[in-house]
Amino acid sequence: YNTASPEILDKTRRIQEVCQRHDVPLPAAAMQFPLGHPLVSAIIPGAMEPSHIQTNAKWFQHEIPADMWAELKTEGLLREDAPTP
Asked: For 3, which DSSP code?
């Protein structure tokens, strides 16, 4: 791994802020986002401890409002044509 660039860190911070405004944990958004693509049928989240399995399940089940995905697109943090859950 390399150190993230200032641009990547800024984009991550801005995504986190949008998630917080919608009461969505960033890991929940990250976990659910790829499932919006029609070619993605499954994800495999990592778990090094039993508690991680419970946390992953919680993030997977967290309801994410469509408004959050729309705001990410409006803010230029997601492409307008990006498929979302």
From this structure: P
Question: Do residues 67 and 22 touch, judged by C-beta distance below 8 A?
Answer: yes
State which residues of the chain have pLDDT below 70.
Answer: none
Q: Is 76 exposed, middle or buried (0-12, 13-18, 19+ CB in 10 A)?
A: exposed
Contact by Cβ (8 Å): 21, 71: yes
Domain ranges of the chain: 1-37+48-85
The whole-number pLDDT of residue 17 equals 98
Q: 64: which 2 tokens?
A: 């994410």
Closest of 3, 20, 22, 17 to residue 66, by C-alpha: 22
Contact 54, 8 (CB under 8 A): no
Q: Where are the alpha helices (DSSP H) in 1-85?
A: 6-21, 26-32, 50-61, 66-74
